[in-house]
Design brief:
heterodimer; A: 327 residues; seven-stranded mixed beta sheet; six-stranded parallel beta sheet; 10 helices; globular; B: 359 residues; five-stranded mixed beta sheet; 12 strands
Chain lengths: 327, 359
């Protein structure tokens, strides 16, 4: 079938046009997309072309929609409200036989195959999760990025007393909102230069500075790098108190200088938190029960035809937090 | 008809009952009552839950009066608390409007202002709004020369137009001291800062001024009914003397006190509304729909075939306010909701425009 979709060409030009979707295979479902979310990794693709297998790319791995057709025995029926997992393990490697979450060849919806910046998409039924139809789609679509935030915080073995968050984009903001739920008494400091993102951080109860240099060195028992700028790893490590846990969520791409003795002497634990493992159902539950905690991260919503302009604005001067797309 | 029924009918025959905004298929899609899309801050929700443990006791509203006085920098004896700001309208009319008293209102006016005027058998004197939806202050001041009361919402509901502070100062100078001026600032937070008057100074200079505020809009507590008035101590004392005891309930007091302690949450919610209001106004302009430039959390627009628009919105799970309810037939008033709801609304407006062009 044909669908209206965002298309990113190999030269990284972007347009909205019509593309032909393959007929769903025996294990696949056809989805009418109602909401999709723009992720920082979508912006990385637009800058670099990294990770894309299927050109032109229709990005969008955070999506909510309605099932139009699903394989028998999949547990899905036409009309079901669903959100999608974003991950596509290769299914053939040794890791996939024992633990697909650790597949080294894992790829993502929108890069390996057309994603949610389209009126329709075809996805494996196994990665679709049903959602209570009473939950607003614009809330449920936050399940994937919230799962990322939940996964990052799952590495903590205690409720933090003082946390620092570098970067208050979608993931930093969702980490912040979730920290407020889990540890209401935790003091949260945020380094974020963009005005609207900083204003959200203050609304959630954070103390905000424009840069991490203004935060207190070696003072935080949890530091979350959700920024990924050139020196953010070094900055995050400098903020950790003795015994602190430093969670790396952002996909930084610059070589980073690390002083090993500093890690040893302050007993810092550094954890890379890629995507998530089994947190998507928990994210769906939280959004259905307490969606109001997370809704404030959505600062703009655009029609599919306006998506190229919205992407250009985010690439040029990010200020919005989570931008949703209404295909 | 019984004698009592006859009295009841006679006392209400000139009164148009207040009709609330239409319901929508979902809470988020209700864009008909100028409510706050984000809702209250987490700390306010926690305060509501905690207050539920003491609802077997009568309420004390003094903590809220003290918190407001401290937050606003205004003495506590200038603050009166009411069950929603609408209750203040009733109390003011009870105190200041007698049979046949002239009461000045813009046309169209805020419905409750007219309703309480008629309940107290005042004589409404209507002054038409200007073309841009703003108050005609010169005409209102002229009409107020022998009036008991002048209702002045700014930003105005249903147009969203705001009175400039210097124009307000002139109006207060022109209105006789025996005429009460009620400055309804329900939507103050959404206005440009330059359009927010220094009410503390005005209250000092004008003992006939009452400033009316609410926790229903930017503080996101519409369902709890909390409002307040700022006025001369003698006026506040009189209002306190006639208001129902315990008129602001325990949960409402706790929520409002907590909300005052969350200025950053409130500011963020206002900022999102202002951004979405700007997007909506640009979209209306692009589609060629006339609208009033709004300083409030709604936009009022003249859109052909509003019934068809209501039907299209209902199909998308949304509801807006029909202008006929508000004295503006042929217009609609669109409350500014959360970004996703506004994206849906803009798409419906585009679809409506395309249908109008084809028909």
């Amino acid at each position: 079938m044909e669908t209206r979709a965002l298309m990113v060409e190999r030269d990284l030009t972007v347009r909205v046009g019509t593309r032909t979707l393959p007929e769903p295979a025996a294990d696949e479902a056809l989805i009418a997309v109602e909401w999709a979310g723009i992720c920082g990794s979508d912006l990385h693709v637009l800058r670099t072309g990294d990770w894309v297998v299927d050109w032109p790319a229709t990005l969008g791995h955070e999506l909510y929609g309605r099932v139009l057709a699903a394989p028998e025995g999949s547990g899905l029926s036409p009309g079901d409200a669903v959100v999608s997992d974003s991950r596509l393990a290769c299914g053939t490697c040794d890791w996939c036989r024992v633990d697909p979450d650790r597949c080294p060849h894992i790829q993502f919806v929108g890069e390996l195959r057309p994603g949610g910046f389209a009126s329709h998409c075809v996805l494996p039924a196994r990665i679709l999760h049903r959602v209570d139809p009473g939950v607003a789609g614009s809330t449920a679509v936050l399940a994937e990025p919230l799962a990322v935030a939940l996964h990052a915080l799952s590495h903590l073995d205690h409720a933090p007393r003082r946390a620092a968050i570098l970067g208050h984009g979608p993931i930093g903001a969702l980490v912040h909102a979730e920290l407020r739920r889990r540890a209401p008494g935790c003091a949260v400091d945020v380094a974020e230069p963009a005005a609207l993102r900083a204003q959200l951080a203050e609304a959630l109860g954070g103390r905000v500075t424009a840069s991490s240099a203004e935060l207190d060195p070696a003072a935080y028992d949890v530091v979350v790098d959700a920024a990924g700028y050139a020196t953010s790893l070094a900055d995050a490590l400098a903020l950790g108190a003795p015994g602190a846990h430093v969670l790396l969520v952002a996909l930084g791409h610059a070589e980073a200088a690390v002083h090993p003795a500093a890690l040893v002497e302050r007993r810092l634990r550094v954890t890379g938190c890629h995507a998530f493992v089994d947190e998507l159902p928990e994210a769906i539950r939280l959004l259905s029960e307490e969606g109001w905690r997370y809704d404030p991260v959505v600062t703009a919503a655009v029609a599919l035809d306006d998506l190229p302009g919205a992407l250009a604005a985010l690439l040029d001067r990010p200020d919005d937090v989570k931008v949703l797309v209404r295909p | 008809m019984s004698a009592i029924a006859d009295v009841a009918e006679r006392r209400t025959t000139a009164i148009r009952r207040y009709e609330p905004g239409r319901a929508a298929a979902s809470s988020a899609g209700k864009l008909s009552s100028n409510e706050a899309p984000l809702g209250p801050a987490p700390a306010v929700r926690a305060a509501v839950a905690a207050a539920s443990h003491t609802v077997h006791r009568y309420a004390s509203s003094e903590p809220l009066r003290a918190a407001l006085a401290a937050r606003l920098g205004i003495p506590g004896d200038r603050v009166v608390l009411t069950s929603g700001s609408d209750e203040l309208c009733y109390l003011l009319a009870t105190l200041f409007v007698d049979d046949g008293d002239r009461v000045v209102l813009s046309r169209p006016c805020y419905q409750i202002d007219e309703l309480v005027t008629r309940v107290h058998r005042g004589a409404p004197v209507f002054v038409d709004l200007r073309e841009d939806g703003s108050h005609d202050l010169d005409a209102m001041a002229a009409a107020a020369r022998d009036a008991a009361l002048l209702w002045l919402p700014t930003p105005h509901n249903p147009t969203g137009a705001a009175v400039a502070p210097d124009a307000l100062v002139r109006l207060l100078g022109d209105v006789p001291e025996r005429c009460l001026v009620v400055l309804d600032e329900a939507y103050r937070a959404y206005a440009d800062p330059a359009l927010r008057p220094d009410v503390g100074g005005l209250l000092e200079r004008h003992p006939n001024l009452v400033v009316q505020r609410t926790f229903s809009k930017d503080h996101a507590l519409a369902g709890l009914r909390v409002g307040y008035g700022l006025a001369a101590p003698e006026v506040v004392a009189a209002l306190d003397a006639i208001r129902p005891p315990f008129n602001v309930n325990t949960v409402a007091v706790a929520a409002a006190v907590a909300a005052l302690d969350q200025p950053a949450w409130r500011a963020y919610g206002v900022e999102l509304v202002r951004r979405e209001r700007d997007r909506l106004e640009r979209h209306l302009a692009a589609l060629g729909f006339e609208h009033h430039a709004s300083q409030a959390n709604f936009v009022t627009a003249r859109i052909p075939d509003p019934e068809a628009l209501h039907a299209r919105l209902a199909a998308a799970g949304q509801a807006i306010r029909d202008g006929a309810d508000l004295g503006l037939p042929g217009w609609v008033r669109i409350s500014v909701g959360a970004p996703p709801q506004m994206a849906v609304l803009r798409a419906v407006l585009t679809d409506h425009k395309e249908h109008l062009c084809r028909s």
